[in-house]
Amino acid sequence: MVRSHTAALGLVGLCSMGSPAAAESTWERRFMVGASIDPSPNGVVDLGLRREALSLQLLTDTLEVRWAPEGDHGRSWLAARAELGAVGLLISPWFDGTPVPEAGFAGGYLGGEAGRIRYLPHGFYVGGSTFAYYTAFYEIPSTQVPVPDPTPWLGLDALGGWWSPHTHAWLRVGVQHDTLGAPLQPHAHLQVRSASDTPIGHRAALHAGTGRGQSILTRTRVGGLNPYAVPLAGAGWGEWWAETYAIARLGPQVCHTVGENLFTHALVFDGGVVDDALGDQVSELTSVWGVGALHRWEGLRWFAQADLGWAGGLTRTSDVPRWSGWLLVGKPWN
User: 218 to each of 37, 72, 88, 211, 243, how far by Cα in Å?
Assistant: First the structure.
C-alpha cells in the first residue's frame, strides 16, 4: 500500500458520514480489491481482521498490526508496519504529463507510528501523531536512474479538526526528515470534505498543502480518482509529486435506494494548482482541471465503485490519453 498523508478510505462516507459503530467482541473481516486505470496502472488489495481495538491488515504490499482503542473522550493508535514494493509510488513516476518508468524504482520500509486524538465539544478535536521508518530502495526492470541510499524516514505532526455528520475538516502541521531532502522539512496540509445524504445534494472537497525542502518520499502525491492521493479526475495516480498544491472538487450528487441497496452518483469538477518534481527540481505552480463521473453501490454486505474522469486541463502528448478510471469492489467491516 502506498503510504498516504492526504487521503484515506472511510474518512468521509458518500451519502452518510455518521461515526463508526462500536466494534463487536468477535473477529470482523474486511476485503477490498481495486484498480486504477490510466497509462501507468496500479492496483490495491486490502485484507483485514479486527477484534475490538486490534486490527491485522494486508494493504497490497504492506503488513500492519494496529492497536487503536477509542473512548468517549478520544482515541489513540499504535501501529507496526512493513512494506516491500511501491513505497510512495516510486515505481511509476510521471513528468510533464507523461509516465517515465525509466525513472522509477521500488522500496521498502520497516517501522511504526503512533498518535492520540482528543475529542472536544461541538465536533472539534485536537491531537498529534508521529512515525519512524527505516526505508531502503532497489531497482526494478525499468530502472535507468541511480537508486538512493537507505534513509530513516521520520515525522511529527500536530492535528486539529472539526467533524459533523456531513462535513469533516482537518489540519495537519508538522515536520519530516529523511536524508534525501532537507534535514528538516516543514509542511502544512488542510483537507475539507462534504457530502449530503439527501436524494439530490452535493459533493465537495478541498485539499491544500505546502512544504519546504521535501524529497521524493515526503512530497504529496496528486492525481487520480482513488482515495490514496489528492484526487484530480482524469489524471494518472500520483501524476504530480508536489510540494505545494490546492485542488478543489465540487458537483451535484444523487442518492437513491432500491430495497436494501444504496446507489450514489456524482458529477464533479476538479480544479486548482499544483507544482511538480522529478529529482531535486520543483516546477512552478501550474493550473490543472478535470471532470469526473463517480458511482457507488452499497448492499447489505458488499459494495462496488466505478469512477471515470477526463482531464481536460492537463499537459498531454498525443499518445497519452486524458482519461483515467477507478474500480473497487469489496466487503466492509462486518
Answer: 24, 33, 8, 9, 9
pTM value is 0.90
Say if residue 8's pLDDT is above 90.
Answer: no
- If residue 263 lies in a helix (H) or strand (E), which one and from where to where? strand 261-274
Q: Tell me the C-alpha distance between 42 and 49, whole Å.
A: 24
Residue pLDDT, tens place only, 303-315 = 999 999 999 989 8
- Picking from 125, 128, 114, the residue whose alpha carbon sits closest to that of residue 74 is 125
DSSP class of residue 144 equals -
CA quadruple 270, 275, 277, 283: dihedral positive or negative? positive
Q: What is the pLDDT of residue 15?
A: 52
> What structural domains and CATH numbers belong to the chain?
28-331 (2.40.160.50)
Strand partners, 55: 50, 66
Cα 167 from Cα 268, distance rounded (Å): 17
The CA–CA distances, whole Å, from 56 to 35, 227, 248 equal 22, 20, 34
What is the rounded CA–CA span in Å between residue 192 and residue 171? Answer: 9
Residue 84, CA atoms < 13 Å, CB-side half-sphere: 1
- Nearest Cα to 266, choosing from 322, 235, 237, 225? 225
**Residue 215 DSSP one-character state:** -
Residues 6+ positions from 27 with CB-CB distance below 8 Å: 49, 50, 51
Give 39's DSSP letter: S
Beta bridge partners of 238: none
Cβ neighbours of residue 71 under 8 Å, at least 6 residues apart? none
Stretch (H or E) spanning 93? none
Instruction: Give the residue from 245, 241, 237 showing the smallest Cα distance to 288.
Output: 245
The Cα–Cα gap between 133 and 151 comes to 9
Instruction: Name the pLDDT band for 278 (thresholds 50, 70, 90).
Output: confident
Q: Residue 27 gets which letter from DSSP?
A: -
The answer to whether 80 touches 114, Cβ cutoff 8 Å, is: no
Mind listing the pLDDT tens digit for each residue in 232-274?
999 999 999 999 999 999 999 999 999 999 999 999 999 999 9
